[in-house]
Amino acid sequence: MTKSRINSSDLLSGLELMIDSYQGKEQILGVNLNPVIVRLSCEEGCVKVIEMARRLGVTADTVRFYTRIKILKPGKNKTNGYREYSENDYNRLRFVLSARQLGFSVEDIQEILNHADKKKSPCPTVRRLIDQRLNETEQRFAETLQLRERMQQAVVEWSQKPDKVPTGHMICHLIEEFAQ
Amino acid sequence: MTKSRINSSDLLSGLELMIDSYQGKEQILGVNLNPVIVRLSCEEGCVKVIEMARRLGVTADTVRFYTRIKILKPGKNKTNGYREYSENDYNRLRFVLSARQLGFSVEDIQEILNHADKKKSPCPTVRRLIDQRLNETEQRFAETLQLRERMQQAVVEWSQKPDKVPTGHMICHLIEEFAQ
DNA sequence: CTTGACCTGTGTCTTGGACACAGGTGTAAG
DNA sequence: CTTACACCTGTGTCCAAGACACAGGTCAAG
Ligand SMILES: [Zn+2]
Ligand SMILES: [Zn+2]
Ligand SMILES: [Zn+2]
Ligand SMILES: [Zn+2]
After folding, report:
1. At what angle do helices A49-56 and A60-68 cross, to 10 degrees?
2. Cβ-based neighbour number of residue B151 at 10 Å
3. How far is the CA of A89 from the centre of ligand 2 (A)?
């Protein structure tokens, strides 16, 4: 599990080579033309929160959020208390973001991860959950579509109507006369 | 402003006739064929929260919510502390519900009501706000549409794929192999 | 008198983070 | 060495529009 020699195409993008040298104590060894980074400070290629966030294109707050709810379980540097995110955390977060893109809720994702953590196939759960979420999305889609049409029609109708001052019975004639 | 003789087609639906006799102390006067309800207990045709809610097809919690944030300002019965909603409150709530149907936020509605309460035309504000809200709705519509398509495509693709047990690199191949 | 339906105010919950805050840490410049 | 500044920690609060809960008061019917 512990690698001292990182295969960048395996784990992360090529950017890693430049990134990793930022604040870590990694050293460039050898004199060959393709310098290879060896991590000396962190046993498992760990990174800090902001770096983790940057690698996956999210904010540090997002990483902290998933840490807070225990989807990510980084280690802790004993000397300074900083959290250390491993390759496993990276994989989990990448998974979480993919699942969010597919409309799964965070709670769904926790359920899926629980299955996977017990080495059981999460696929049946995934299939069941996406059916539910797709139904809800269809529902929201229909509602949003209808709302959009109502609003568009209101704008069109209102363009023909004058402004008015409110009366005892009418607060805004635009809104109240828009029957639908 | 104070009416002792309610014109039901003016203010409320015909249902009011039956409803009003529920818990109030109204009396049916006269011997004509169309009995007319005269309210004796409440000077301004006031009703209690649940009745107000029922008349507009919302829950009592919704009425309490708009009361809490001071969009509705019912009077208070001195003897029992119950809130008394007037015709004005009814008109305001009906307006609020119409505006919500058109995608205005509660804050928008407060701004609109502030104008109207100062006898100024809220129409320019209404036109400006609906442009904003319509833009946001178009945005959400596009996002919901895309999400729906992604989800639908996932369901289709996944129907051809088997379940799998997670590995060290892969939590759920369905989600992670769904590249898009 | 009791039951049950209604009423009150207040507080908390919902989503997926975003933002704030108080205080600790690491590093580079002066 | 000091100081500045960027980074880190945990915790708490906020968002929208109500929904729900809770403790206690009120009212009419049986
Ligand atoms: Zn480390
Ligand atoms: Zn799977
Ligand atoms: Zn009254
Ligand atoms: Zn108007």
Report:
1. 110
2. 22
3. 18
Residues of chain A with pLDDT under 70: 1-44
Q: Which residues 125-144 of chain B have a CB within 8 Å of chain A?
A: 126-127, 130-131, 133-134, 137-138, 140-141, 144
Q: Is B146 on the interface with A (CB under 8 A)?
A: no
Burial class (CB in 10 A: 0-12, 13-18, 19+), B15: exposed
Cβ–Cβ below 8 Å for B151 and A133? yes
- Say yes or no for a CB contact (<8 Å) between B112 and A171: yes
> Of all protein residues, which has its CA closest to the C1' atom of C17?
A62
> What would the two tokens of residue A159 be?
């363009």
Question: pLDDT-derived band of residue B44, with 50, 70 and 90 as boundaries?
Answer: low
Six token digits for residue B22:
């529920």
**Range B9-22 average pLDDT:** 37
Task: Confirm if B103 and A147 have CB atoms less than 8 A apart.
Answer: yes
Residue in A closest to B162 by C-alpha: A123
DSSP character string of B115-131 = HHHTT---HHHHHHHHH
Question: For residue range B18-31, what is the model confidence (pLDDT) as tens digits?
Answer: 333 333 333 333 33
Which residues in chain B touch residue A165, judged by CB atoms under 8 angstroms apart? 119-121
The predicted pLDDT at position B168 comes to 87
Per residue, what are the HEC states of A7-72? CHHHHCCCCHHHHHCCCCCCEEECCCCCCEEECCCCCCCCECHHHHHHHHCCCHHHHHHHHHCCCC
pLDDT digits (tens, 9 = 90+) for A23-43: 333 333 333 333 333 344 555
**In this predicted model, what pLDDT tens digit does every residue of B144-162 receive, in sequence order?**
999 999 999 999 999 999 9
* Nearest CB partner across the interface for B172, out of A101, A122, A141: A122
- Residue A43: per-residue pLDDT: 57
pTM above 0.90, yes or no: no
Whether the Cβ atoms of residue A2 and residue A87 lie closer than 8 Å to each other: no
